[in-house]
Amino acid sequence: MPADPKKLRSGRWFEAQDLRAFGHRSRALQMGYGYEDFIGKPVVAIVNTWSDISQCHAHLRTRAEEVKRGVWQAGGFPIELPALSLAEVFVKPSTMLYRNLLAMETEELLRSHPVDGVVLLGGCDKTTPALLMGAISMNLPAIFMPAGPMLRGNYAGRVLGSGSDVWKYWADRQAGELTDEEWRLMESGIARSFGTCMTMGTAATMMSLAEALGFTLPGASSIPAADSGHARMATACGRRIVEMIGEDLKPRDVLTRASLENALVVHMALAGSTNAIIHLIAIAGRAGIPLSLADFDRVAREVPVLADIRPSGAFLMEDFFYAGGLPALMSRLADRLDLSAATVSGMNLGAAIADARVYNRDVIRGLDNPVSSAAGTAVLTGNLAPDGCVMKPAAAEPRLLKHAGPALVFRDYNEMAAAVDRDDLEVTPDHVLVLQNAGPVGGPGMPEWGMLPIPRKLLKEGVRDMLRVSDARMSGTSYGACILHVAPESYVGGPLAAVRNGDVISVDVEARTIALEVADDEIARRLAGWKPPERTFPRGYNRMYAEHIRQADKGCDFDFLEGTAPTPEPEIH
């Protein structure tokens, strides 16, 4: 359905016969465009998170041109708008600190420019939720073009998975089992192309959930970044957004309770990153749809892990793509999905996956042969986490799913880093490692410190997993018995701040409980005399962040960005 030129939002800039519109048209002409390029045509923003230091998005400069090709083909006028680049690994202290900044920038880019719809280019961990959050708040027609996973890693004939194998082999190196040369060979072979991590980390999880929510073209989330099909998908996104503008198909038409329930089912079947819990709650909040930790736990109890992908399984995203990708996985789950949910393709979900086939039953299992019956996600509550905490049982050693042991407490990351490799550290495999002051405010930005390293003296003894508790996050590529997102966080006076060395912490994942085995009045006494470590937020974005960030169980969005209050249109003066 072609867009009606008389109803285009961009017409407010270009169509009026006044001095201001004269300036808009003359400046477009200044850039070499002709009247026929932009007058009466839908203007499509391409919000691009490419940068010279965003390794996952190194190809998005090229993909933006391929999206433009599709927009031109469909009769639209494309304009590329660069946005904040959130490069995992490089951005400190954490890209999570800046997720909301990118969401705000996306909303304001769309609000302030003469655009009728948008193609969102991202994929590296926080870019997917940030772009979607901003687009949902602005609520112009929007389609997400996922960056796609990188190719498999390789080391000495062995397949490597980004992140997951780093933690595994680092433990071996710390135990003295790898030489410097072996480590360098691994370092040069683990990331062989542009694209996101090729394990089921946060990037792959969030791109998959964007598709499950209906925000991508069918099958788009699992196409490897270096595959020629990825370029064709980019062009198809450009063509489709022009059609969506004509149909006036907007994000809040796609994001519904039904689509969120679909995303929860897919998340559990993937054993997706625990970070997705925070992001999905924030995404839902932008549409005014309540989503709680209880919703995640409810679905986790009903849906087993079907995707055999690292870190919970054996394969990588390239294998998942060849096995049929996300449409194939969703076809296995059809009875548990709302197939009437809308998608940006113009089809409902049922039609979008109707022709999907599973080509490798080892990679994409059936409900009768799951990878794991253990929940992909578990939400625990108790006196240590009154508002909840999360873990990934499928990625933990089974012996630790019901465990009690003495706490070994680190007050912050630096204290932990200074102690964990000491040979005289008093620690046993039964200890529970505790990291405080690493949450949304205390981190700041809730860094990925939750996969506390196993003390070196235990690594040398062959220990590869321990129970670990923190108010931090962990990389979605990580594994182990890590209990994360403890809410409220210790820095704001949550019970985690009261834990002391030797206190017994008990966990029962099946019962969904976590407890500090200390009397309630003693916990209250400790907290009454407790003071947070020194943190200063004197200016700028960090100050705004500290004053307005919500806790992990609420999605870590800013309090003033939640909900569906309309984004005001700018006055054209």
Structure description:
It is built from 21 helices and 14 strands. With 573 residues, it is an alpha/beta fold. It has three domains: 5-33 and 42-151 and 193-352, Rossmann fold; 155-189, no CATH class; 378-535, Glucose Oxidase, domain 1, CATH 3.50.30. The strands form four sheets. It has a six-stranded mixed β-sheet with strand order 12-11-10-9-13-14. The model has no long low-confidence stretch (mean pLDDT 95).
Question: Low-confidence runs (pLDDT<50, min 5 residues)?
Answer: none
The number of helical segments is 21
At the fourth level of CATH, the homologous superfamily of the largest domain is Response regulator
**Strand content of the residues, in percent?**
5-15%
Distance from first to last alpha carbon = 32 Å
Any idea what the radius of gyration is? 24 Å
Strand tally, please?
14
State the shape.
globular
Number of domains: 3
Describe the strand arrangement of the main beta sheet, using strand numbers.
12-11-10-9-13-14
Largest sheet, if any? 6 strands, mixed
Mean pLDDT: 95
Give me the CATH fold name of the largest domain.
Rossmann fold
**Structural class determined from secondary elements:** alpha/beta
Write the CATH architecture name of the largest domain: 3-Layer(aba) Sandwich
Percent range for helical residues? 25-40%
**Name of the top-level CATH class of the largest domain:** Alpha Beta
